[in-house]
Amino acid sequence: MDTINTSGRRKNAIARIYLTSGNGTFSINNKSLEEYFPSLEQQYKVHQPFEICGVKGNYDVKAVLSGGGITGQVEAMRLAIAKALVQENEEFKPSLKAEGLLTRDSRMVERKKPGQKKARKKFQFSKR
């Protein structure tokens, strides 16, 4: 198997991953998975595509993450891994699609409007 190169995006986060056959090691911006994503929930989200396909521990992942926050980066990486697994084996597609891992979440932060406190919240109204 050659190296599979895919990318995933979520909010302003971009994940570029390189998937190779190996023993399940992760390198994210030259850090380990546990070092970059200390929360167990975040680690679970990264492992989710592998667990659904039943190939956990069969691939090495080298990822370059940029932009956004932690949650956006985790979900961008999850999308990139799912896309790479489908490129590797087309039989994984129905199970990943059923879990919604192949769909890019297009929701973005709404911009702040002038004359308002936030995007939709107004300044407090005072009658007197």
**What letter string, H or E per element, gives the SSE order?**
EEEHHEHH
- Give me the CATH fold name: Ribosomal Protein S5, domain 2
Q: What number of structural domains do the residues give?
A: 1
Rg of Cα set: 18 Å
Q: Supply the CATH class.
A: Alpha Beta
The first-to-last residue Cα distance is: 73 Å
From the spread of the alpha carbons, the general shape counts as elongated
Q: List how many beta strands DSSP finds.
A: 4
Q: Biggest β-sheet, characterized?
A: 4 strands, mixed
Derived structural class: alpha+beta
Helix content estimate: 25-40%
Taken as a percent bin, the fraction of beta residues is: 15-25%
Uncertain stretches: none
Order of neighbouring strands in the sheet with most strands: 1-2-4-3
Second-tier CATH architecture: 2-Layer Sandwich
Mean pLDDT: 95
Separate helix tally: 4
